[in-house]
Amino acid sequence: MEMRSLGRSGIVVSRLGLGTATFGREIDEASSFQIMDAALERGITLFDTAEAYGGGQARQYRQEHLGVEDVREVSGEMHSSEKILGRWIKSRGVRSQVTIQTKVSGNKNEQETWMALEDSLRRLQTDTIDLYLFHKYDPEVPLEEGLAALDRAEKSGRIRCSGCSNFSATQLSEGLELSRRNGLPRLGVIQPIYNLACREIETDLLPLCQRQEVGVVTYSPLGAGFLAGKYTADQAEIPKGTRFDVIPGHVDVYFRPRSFRVVEQLRQMADRTGLSMVQLAMGWVLKREGVDSVLIGVRHTGHLDNAIRSLEMEFPPEWMAEMNSWD
Question: Could you say which of 121, 132, 199, 223 is the most buried, measured as most Cβ atoms within 10 Å of its Cβ?
């Protein structure tokens, strides 16, 4: 497995990382353990989670935001992703072999950030988190308040590197400037969404990260399964148990005319090349400049093998040029 340094953080991660958002939500604990065993065996050392990932949270989201009272998850455990990852690490004795990346739900105030970090450490059953990120930007809370908590956490050894997820280039710039001006921890890594249907980071964010030496770990290379071509524009036909069924918010991100055009172009290219849509979509992200690691979410070990094949396969420049032109 190829390894990459994350900017100037000093942390080295595998080119592919394992996203664990589905653990305890779409995938039960036994299957999650099997997947993590296989990932580590194949050289994947970056494991990504968040306090917000859990079967319980998904169920709660539908109740509070959609008024839907039903069961679509494999468990109702709150924070199931962090807890399952923590139980696996302890049972296998592999803490020194893996890099843990987790996230606080937003740039909360200093006390809330500190308490969230302590809770994640407890659920993950570890003394140190390698990469600790703000999951999203909250304009209502001054960013320096969360950074102050991370400053305390870094100095106490609870985290190795601070970062952010789903920040815009402007928001990342603000964080970097606050850190420089006030002597606070630098946001050394960012986790943005990036795939053929969501390419917004190419304009400003990726160039900024290259200039400022910020590590880039992207997620959702297949658009939560959208780029596999299994969805139609008819939302009534969304398969039960899929990511779009359990987390309906994905529909707002991907069910757009341009996205369906990209899927059709990807389908035609797959027919022409003899490769799967998944391999082509994954290969495109892995060959893009400025991306250090790509998080993959899997339901079984075969998905891991597909991702590794995409990493290792030849990807002619003309394919990249063609796919870059899709709109």
Answer: 132
